[in-house]
Structure formats: structure tokens, C-alpha cells
């Protein structure tokens, strides 16, 4: 009985983490525990056990009387994960180009169709789900069970990150087309080149987001420093007329 409970708890934990990985939930928003329990067909107990584990891992935050909220994945961590996944993807691609079956090629084509539909509807969650299935099939085609386990493990760490991903989905989709064509022709070099380009695109996108975030922080820091004359107004010192004069001061306007 205890063993069955442990298996259920682990199953629910992995299911919730997969939901997070494919953008089912948005960072900063509350997780709907009731909806998760209905979807998984379980009670609230294993779901809350999963949430407590996720909180220990720094993935969610629980607030008394409010619920559990999904945290953002730092861009620096996203870069590290993509870098590792890239190396694993290329190894899986090399093996799959020698061992892939027609059945898996058909499933990859269906996944590609689902990705296109998601791009047309700007549905990031649907695209993430199809993308995860696409790469999972390549690992399955590799015929290496340990490699597949590594993929599944690291995928569970790929949480929603800040930034706009929709604009690069068409380019990612085109890489997937090239990967399928390479696999269908058993062209190992073509597959590896497409996967390398695929990883570089994702990494460059995250690096761009990180640079923009750092520039924004620096700009805010400078703005706070330059707006120091407003401190008296913010602190409530001086008469109302003095505060208004301060804000309408032409010298201050020039600085702004």
C-alpha cells in the first residue's frame, strides 16, 4: 500500500512538472490545484505533495490562504539547460539517423503538423507540447534508453522563462523540417547541422533577452540616480506648493 502511494506521488509530481515545462502555467500566476486534480484523476493530497516538492526545488512559491504560484526560470539557468540539451540532442540525432523507423518518422511528421497549427494560432503551450514530443521521438529513435532517461530528466528542469518566444517559432519549425528530412535520408551530417543551428538559435535568443534585461536594469538604476531631486517630494517633506514647483522646475525638466 505504501509502495503504491509512493508511485502515485512520483507520477503526479512528474506530471505536474511536465505541465510546467510545456508552458501550461504562466509564471507569477496561481496554480489551479482543483483543475490539476480533475485532469490527473487523483485527490488533492498527491498534488499538494508534488507542489511541496516543487517549492523545495525553487519552482513554485506557496502563500498562506492564497495558494501556490509558479516562479520564473532565471534566464541564466535557461542558458545552461539549453546548452546541455543541445549536446544531448546532437548525440541522439546521430544515433537516430542510423536507427530510425518509418513509424517514428510518421509520428515526427504529425508533430510537425501540430507545431504549424500552434504557430498559426500563436499558442505557445501547444507548440511547447508538440516540440517536446518531437524531440522525445528522436531520443526514442536513438535506441539508447539511458540517453532517453537523461532527456526526460533535464526536460523536467525546463521551466517557463521570461521573454517573447513566439517570434522565433517559425525558425525553430524550419529547423525541425530540416531534421526530419535528414533523418528520412539517414544523413547524419545534415541532422547534426540542423540540430546545431537549432540550439544556437535558442541560445542566441535567450542571450538577447538576458542582455535586454541587464540593460533595462542599468537604465532603471541610472534613472533612480538622476531623479534624486524627487526624493523630497516622495518623502512628503515641504509644502504642497514646494512639491509642485519641484516637479515643474525647468532645470529638472532639462535633466529629464
Explain the overall architecture.
This protein is mainly α and about 260 residues long. The chain is built from twelve helices and two strands; from the N terminus they run H-H-H-E-E-H-H-H-H-H-H-H-H-H. The protein has a two-stranded antiparallel ribbon with strand order 1-2.
How many structural domains are formed by the residues? Answer: 2
Tally of helical runs = 12
**CATH architectural arrangement of the largest domain:** Up-down Bundle
- The fraction of residues assigned to DSSP E strands is under 5%
Strand runs, count: 2
> On the 0-100 scale, what is the average pLDDT?
85
Instruction: Provide the structure class.
Output: mainly alpha
Could you give me the name of the CATH homologous superfamily of the largest domain?
GntR ligand-binding domain-like
Assign the CATH topology of the largest domain: Four Helix Bundle (Hemerythrin (Met), subunit A)
- Output the helix-strand order: HHHEEHHHHHHHHH
Low-confidence stretches: none
Amino acid at each position: 500500500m505504501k509502495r503504491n502511494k509512493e508511485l502515485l506521488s512520483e507520477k503526479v509530481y512528474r506530471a505536474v512538472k511536465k505541465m510546467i515545462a510545456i508552458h501550461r502555467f504562466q509564471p507569477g500566476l496561481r496554480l489551479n490545484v482543483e483543475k490539476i486534480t480533475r485532469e490527473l484523476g487523483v485527490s488533492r493530497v498527491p498534488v499538494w505533495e508534488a507542489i511541496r516538492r516543487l517549492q523545495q526545488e525553487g519552482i513554485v512559491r506557496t502563500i498562506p490562504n492564497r495558494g501556490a504560484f509558479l516562479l520564473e526560470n532565471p534566464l541564466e539557468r535557461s542558458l545552461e539547460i539549453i546548452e546541455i540539451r543541445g549536446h544531448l540532442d546532437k548525440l541522439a540525432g546521430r544515433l537516430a539517423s542510423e536507427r530510425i523507423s518509418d513509424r517514428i518518422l510518421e509520428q515526427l511528421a504529425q508533430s510537425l503538423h501540430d507545431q504549424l497549427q500552434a504557430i498559426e494560432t500563436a499558442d505557445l503551450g501547444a507548440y511547447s507540447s508538440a516540440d517536446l514530443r518531437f524531440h522525445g521521438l528522436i531520443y526514442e529513435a536513438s535506441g539508447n534508453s539511458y540517453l532517453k532517461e537523461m532527456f526526460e530528466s533535464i526536460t523536467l528542469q525546463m521551466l517557463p522563462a521570461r521573454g517573447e518566444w513566439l517570434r522565433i517559432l517559425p525558425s525553430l519549425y524550419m529547423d525541425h523540417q530540416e531534421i526530419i528530412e535528414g533523418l528520412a535520408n539517414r544523413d547524419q551530417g545534415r541532422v547534426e547541422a540542423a540540430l546545431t543551428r537549432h540550439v544556437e538559435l535558442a541560445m542566441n535568443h535567450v542571450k538577447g533577452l538576458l542582455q535586454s534585461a541587464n540593460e533595462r536594469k542599468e537604465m532603471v538604476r541610472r534613472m533612480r540616480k538622476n531623479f534624486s531631486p524627487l526624493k523630497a517630494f516622495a518623502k512628503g517633506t515641504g509644502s504642497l506648493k514646494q512639491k509642485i514647483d519641484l516637479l515643474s522646475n525647468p532645470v529638472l525638466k532639462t535633466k529629464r
